Amino acid sequence: ALFNDAQGDWAWKSFEKGQTRFSSAGFGTPSATNTGKWVLHEIRIEEGALKYFSNQRLLGEVLLSGSTALTQFGISANVGGQGIVDFIAVMSSGAETRQAQSGKAEAVVPPNPTSSAPFDTAVLPDGTVLMAGSAGCLVGVSADGSVERTEYPFGMNFECDRAGVMWYYNFPDGSLYRWDPGKRKREEIARLPLAYSDGSIAVAPDGASVYVGGWLMDKPVSVLYRWTAHGGLEKVLERPNESRIRAVEVAADGEVFVGCSDGIYRLRGKATLERYFAFRQGGVHLASDGLTSDEAGNLYFSANVDGRGVFRLSRNGKLEPIARFSDDLDLPFGLSWHSARQAILGVRKEKGQMVSIDLRGNVRVLNRPSGLTTPIAIDQHPEGWILINGDEIGLLRVGAGNTVEIYCRGMCCYQPPPADFTFDRNGLIYYTCAAPGFVSEIVTIDAKKTIRTLTRKVGSPAGIDTGPDNAIYYADFKNGTVCRLSPQGQSTVVVGDLLYPLGLVVDDAGNIWVGLADKQGQVKPGSLGEVSSTLIAKYDAGGRLLETVRFPERMDVDITFFDVDSSGNLYVPTRDSILRRDAGGRIEVLADGFTQLRGAKVCS
Prior knowledge:
Elements: E1 2-4, E2 10-12, E3 39-46, E4 49-54, E5 57-63, E6 73-75, E7 88-90, E8 98-99, E9 104-105, E10 118-123, E11 129-133, E12 138-141, E13 147-149, E14 157-160, E15 166-170, E16 175-180, E17 185-191, E18 200-203, E19 209-215, E20 221-228, E21 232-240, E22 245-250, E23 256-260, E24 263-268, E25 272-278, E26 286-293, E27 299-303, E28 309-313, E29 319-324, E30 333-338, E31 343-348, E32 353-358, E33 363-365, E34 378-380, E35 386-389, E36 395-398, E37 404-408, E38 421-423, E39 429-433, E40 441-445, E41 451-455, E42 461-466, E43 472-476, E44 481-485, E45 491-495, E46 504-506, E47 512-516, E48 535-539, E49 545-549, E50 563-564, E51 570-573, E52 575-581, E53 587-597
């Protein structure tokens, strides 16, 4: 087996038969397998380079003229074969430069170590601070702001009991599970109905009971569940959306508190909520999972009560503001109490930040986020600068020195489907707004960042582009159409009867390229999971099908926002790689090693 040591030099390592795991300083994190996608089938040394192949295609190459470090190797066991090591799983992560068949990929803005926006926090019994991104990756946050991956399983909402056992609630699939670091065993204990992201998990200090609150996807209600070892999972109560459950907390003495949109309640008996503190004005927004408590039983919550901020509610009912924030997007959620620091921990999803708030109101950012949390669509303004759709935070601009700054916010952009945007010749931005529970529309954004609704007569816009005639075209995910949009906001169907169109490009000849699902069942329009396409169809300006581009099954593509250059080359991001398909139909890997590649644009 060939590997690189801590200095980046190539070396040979022998293995004892049956050995399945291997690790050394600088070597990366081993894994047992990788579902076949990254299985390394062949290594060749040709023309002064070491080339490695996966599933009969070139993954990458390394010039042998100098030492080069490849990280994140995994050595897998001999499974039924004759060799000592049957295969090596090659995985990539981080911001390091990667070689590919042609060209070089480099990070302009470094990736966030959580893989996406931070979603929740937890404090381990030894004081270690954990944070999770919305991709579920758990990281440890050190006092100096450095962030490192942990061995803990992935999870969306999570909490730790005083024995160090981790409890997880994964709202997109409803799974409730636990992981004991001592036993190193992940165990699913229950399944709940699918819910939206406004969920919360709370665990009794002794781990004897677990409470989960969430807003159901298939009903206009929120529900509180309780799990115990002897009783299993049971539904405690339902609440209407006017008093939606947004947070649950189990205090040190075992009392259970439920944070709703109209106040904070105490759970009495098995299924009765007693009002503990009322939010007296309307329009209160309690942050998701925005409730925690200290060892004395004081509650801390994040909401826009008497201004936006974090508040302390003492056991005698006194309300005291701790820290103020500028707007709802700044409000921290996923709150945890850090006893040793005497501080409240939380995350600000849109900013990618984990914050610590002491009792004097000082707010400190604990990590060093890149500024991008969930980048999706990307495009180049006619003047040359780059805009990125940052999901919930709105449009972001890559500024001088590759810094990320907020360009415009206030649009509805909660996926799925993901929002897209385009420019006309004058630089006016056309932005698609669509999300479950919100009104779908297409808006314009001018140079003064003024947002105007152009049309609401759309089903669920999911892909938009400008044609060579300066007309605007968009894909309607819900209605299965591609439409041309007039300056007055009137839509004309160009192509109909499409299966979940997502991603649209109009090339220089006026041809329309649109991403589609290959068959029913590949896309779940109501799911909180990220929707994507599996093939690309090309139509002429009159809506006549010209060709259909499919990809080999071994490439396992998930397509969102792609592009076509002036020569007819198609550039397709597929989560782990970007493919180039030339006008003659030849497909090659342009660059790989990514984890969530969603958008690609050819710059001018």
